[in-house]
Amino acid sequence: MVAALSVLDLAMGWEIGFDERWDRDVGYGVPAWCDHPDCKAEIDRGLAYVCGAEPYGGDRGCGLYFCEKHRSYRGLCARCMRNRDPFEPKPEHPRWIQHRETDPSWAEWRSDQAKSSLKSC
User: How much is the pTM?
Assistant: First the structure.
């Protein structure tokens, strides 16, 4: 399943977008951990690290993000190379959380999140 492109994808290229399948921010502007469960490498969620080597993983990959050590020369993680279920995605990187919570460019997003959580109560 390929997630739809967000408005941010169209306006900013691949710096910041949203992956509906994994319910998280993606793009080379998003600091992250390698999604391999035994790895703590810091990467970003840009196309250089995505399993499948295409946006959201394309037709071959799971769309999670892996360092060079945990991505094959074909651009796939170990599980996708063996046609297995994907790893569990890692939580957001603390730098990314702080950026979203404090940077002025995310003020509208924070406001929308607050309104959304009030509606669900």
Answer: 0.83
pLDDT (tens digit, 0 to 9) for every residue of the chain, 121 residues total? 334 444 444 445 779 999 999 999 999 999 999 999 999 999 999 999 999 999 899 999 999 999 999 999 999 999 999 999 999 999 999 999 999 999 999 889 888 888 877 776 6
b/e string for 88-121 if b means 16 or more Cβ within 10 A? ebbebbeebeebbeeeeeeeeeeeeeeeeeeeee
The total number of residues written for the chain in this structure: 121
Cβ–Cβ < 8 Å for 49, 67 = yes
Cα separation, 86 vs 2, whole angstroms: 15
